[in-house]
Amino acid sequence: MYLEFYGLKEPPFSITPQGGSGGFVQLTGEVGTGKTTLSRLLLEQLPDNTQVALVLNPHLSPIELLETIGEELHLDLAGRHGSLKRLLDALNAHLLKAYAEGQRVVLIIDEAQELSRLALEQVRLLTNLETPSQKLLQIVLLGQPELRDVLERPELRQLSQRVTARYHLTPLSREETEIYLRHRLAVAGATRFPFTKLAVRRLHERSGGVPRLINVIADRALLAGFAHDQAQIGERLVERAAGETLSTRIRRYSPPPALLVGALAAALAALLLWLLPERAPPAVTPSPVQPVADVVPPASPSSPVALDAQALTARIAQAGPSLLLAFNRMLAMWSVRADAIDAATASRCPAVLGSGMFCLRSNANLSKLARLGRPAIVHLTGEGADAWALLLGVDALRARLWLAGERVEVDRLLLERQWTGEYMAIWRAPEFVVLPLRMGDSGAAVDWLRTQVQADGEPGSLGPAHFDAELMMAVKRTQARYGLLPDGIVGPETLLALIASDDSGPQLRTRLD
Question: How many CB atoms lie within 10 A of CB 228?
């Protein structure tokens, strides 16, 4: 990733003799913060040339651990049970064969804080299985925060020194809690959001932002709403639901510091990047030597964080899989159900997203985006890293962004320096509109176009649904007004300009008071 930037031909500080990927990834988090979810996502997204050994029961002796790994990798262990040497020989032979065939082998150990000292030492010894260029086995340790304390013991310092990436998942902020609730409801088929703002606040307070507890309380609150014939869930129903589901100890739980928004997705991307470096996209490169959650969270989730040039560059470097996060946010602003449009597909910005939504990927400046008047995803760069942020507003002096799940404000000139000019925007239009529209076309799409041109301030009569010279001149004037090429042809960018005056859908803020 950084080799070309520093003029290097190989990693100078690799922990293997001649470079290459290796070592451990350590992922910790409190109960219910998403470690298991992350491991499932990791397993789903690994490519076909990856073999995975998943250890779910950590209460194993060194021999039992090797036997479990062998069984997970479908090794022939006949005559090898009970012998540490024979098991290691079989595993080493398999790893060498996999390496020769271009396969990667990953060991994932869940609840790793429960491993005995001897089992942890055996895990460390497994990293000695290597070629001159790279480790043959890549290891991910998942566990509760106690795992960090375990690995800091003096007798395990050799293992701790081989941890090349550490991540810690913390609970959700209040804003993230609402995004999480909206996502879960949309996936379940909801067409409206039943929780009031006060209900969301109370749910976050009582759950501490822990996703598992959010699920428990929200489910009971919906049940209570049904029982009382209340379609809208207020804070009283949430309080009652929390009282019925949480123990006394949990009810007194005070919310921990807010999560660096998108930490789960960023950790997933970092794990994939570490495991499969040659396949990882450059946009997802959080620093692998410090926990994701070490970034200072915003003082208040309701107000954007002001960033100077240095802080913005740091956020860009730590943004993780920012394009997917930004698209999820933008789709939510348009009230698009999660099951209607897949965010991963949408992030590639095909011209037609479906469900009446269109997408445009182009280049512009801030003045042009302000005239178009819709939130847009912008591509930022800084010191060799890049990220995608959702532009929420811009005025003469400042710009407001949603970057990796957090609202931030930056100086407008600073944004212009660190923005490549590339942007993506989505909007809603009738599905019968097929682009491009040009002179000579007719039908319902042209009839709709006439209406939009008049709504944009162009005079004209509602004549037949025919794209005539008068309509073409009106389109040209609209294009010129928005700084577009005045060719009289309605393409994606012109269509976006034509609906700028439409009050429906989210608007780009032009006053950041």
Answer: 11
Angle at 385 between CA 381 and CA 386, to 5 degrees: 45
The whole-angstrom separation of Cα 142 and Cα 293 is: 16
The first and second tokens of residue 217, run together, are 């309380």
Here the tokens at position 253 are 């739980």
* Distance (Å, whole) CA 235 – CA 221: 9
Q: Which 3 state secondary structure label does DSSP give 334? A: coil
Can you tell me which residue has the tokens 């994701």? Answer: 292
Is residue 283 within 8 A of residue 379, CB to CB? The reply is: no
CB distance 494 to 484 below 8 Å = yes
Return d(Cα 217, Cα 210) in angstroms, integer: 11
Give the C-alpha separation, 33 to 25, whole Å.
18
The values of phi and psi at residue 433, to 5°, are -80, 115
Give all domains of the chain, ordered by start, each with its CATH number: 3-169 (3.40.50.300), 174-251 (1.10.8), 299-428 (3.90.70.10), 444-490 (no CATH)
- CA-to-CA distance for 464 and 1, rounded, in angstroms? 58
DSSP 135: B
CA dihedral 153, 154, 156, 159 (to 10 degrees): 110
Q: What is the pLDDT along the chain (513 residues), one digit of tens a residue?
A: 456 655 666 655 554 434 445 568 888 887 777 777 777 777 777 778 889 888 888 888 999 999 999 999 999 888 888 888 899 889 989 988 988 888 889 999 988 888 888 888 888 888 778 776 677 888 888 888 888 888 888 888 878 777 877 888 778 888 889 998 988 888 888 888 899 999 999 999 998 888 888 988 999 899 888 888 888 999 999 998 888 887 543 433 333 333 333 455 555 555 555 555 444 333 333 333 333 333 333 333 457 889 999 999 988 988 766 788 888 888 888 888 766 787 777 788 888 888 788 899 999 999 889 988 999 999 999 888 889 999 999 998 999 999 977 889 999 999 999 999 999 999 888 888 888 899 999 888 898 888 888 876 665 554 567 899 889 999 999 888 888 889 999 988 898 888 877 777 899 998 887
Structure tokens at 114: 């429960």
Give the sign of the dihedral formed by CA 120, CA 125, CA 126, CA 130: positive
Distance CA 218, CA 157 (A): 43
Of 448, 443, 449, nearest to 490 (Cα)?
449
Q: How many CB atoms lie within 10 A of CB 295?
A: 18
The 10 Å Cβ neighbour count of residue 477 is: 16
C-alpha neighbours within 13 Å on the C-beta side of residue 436:
12
Name the DSSP letter for residue 6. Answer: H
CA atoms in the 13 A half-sphere facing the CB of 433: 29
Write down the residue that tokens 């794209």 correspond to. Answer: 467
Listed in sequence order, the residues at least 6 apart from 491 whose beta carbon sits closer than 8 Å to its beta carbon are: 435, 436
